[in-house]
Amino acid sequence: MDKTEIIEKLIEEKNLNVRSAAIKADIPYTTLRSMLKRGIDNSSVGNVIKLCKALDITIDELERMSTQDDISTIAAHHDGDDFTEEELEEIKNFKEFIKSRRNQ
Cα 73 to chain center, whole Å? Predict the structure, then answer.
């Protein structure tokens, strides 16, 4: 998953929309909308930092999430819920099931 998709997912998981996420990050709505359209990697570092802080993650966490194919990274940020190892395994299995349906 790329950084932009991760940011969009985190915004959704926190029950925010683009406008409310922009307000929380203290950046203009049009700037955030542009960041999501152009891609987070094409955005200013300052705005990415503000957005990450608003979503309660660090830049390093965003980078790790974008380079891992591990559902536990995103699951760990889901509304502050803690998942057991068994639940994380179920999530991983469900993710693989969803991916397998793409080719049908």
Answer: 10
Burial 1-27 (b: 16+ CB within 10 A, else e): eebbebbbbbbeebebeeeebbebbeb
Domain count, the chain: 1
Residue 43: give its domain's CATH number: 1.10.260.40
* Tokens 């974008």 belong to residue: 66
| pLDDT tens per residue, range 3-19 | 999 999 999 999 999 99
Range of the domain at 94: 3-101
- Give the Cα separation of 4 and 21 in Å (integer): 14
pLDDT digits (tens, 9 = 90+) for 31-45: 999 999 999 999 999
